[in-house]
User: What shape does this take?
Amino acid sequence: MKNLLSLLLASALLVACGRQNSQQETTSAAEYEAFTASVSGAPRVSGNAYAPWAKMKADAYRAVHPEDAPSAGTIDIPAYPGSCIVRNGTIGEGTAALDFITLICEDSHEAVIQFYQDRLIDQLGWSYEEQYNVFQPGKGNEFILRNTPFVSVMDLNPEASEMQDVDPGFLKNFRTRIQVTYRSKS
Assistant: This one.
């Protein structure tokens, strides 16, 4: 039993630190459950969720709906391993609308950029626009002009309004903010 507990804790740490095997795109249900359990006080989500929720302040829980987190199968863009959701929703209206999910992670901006270079540029042919800190299927500012999916990576600002509901003790360990804007595969 002690060895099993050690194995689960080690698994949770590996996932939480983003040191997931690069050959494995998805987290197994056991690893996902271990990671979610390691985020003490975070809203629970199903094993097929895109990512677990960050630990929120007590008064913010009523606004967090874990069941509203998109499933991994509805988004063509991989979640950064070990990242947590801080918010999700829709930008725009009608046919111009895109869904978004904002993630935070403990790893450096550079590590996240490298992950998305491997997954989006090398595997899908996307481009990275350093001027905007954005990965996109097109070039330049097409992500704005043509309303295309994109991934934005930047250093985390713990004072930003989107972070106001995240538990400060939990947030202090996080360094990078990732916004994934996408069209649902549904």
Summary: Residues 120 and 138 are 12 Å apart (CA to CA).
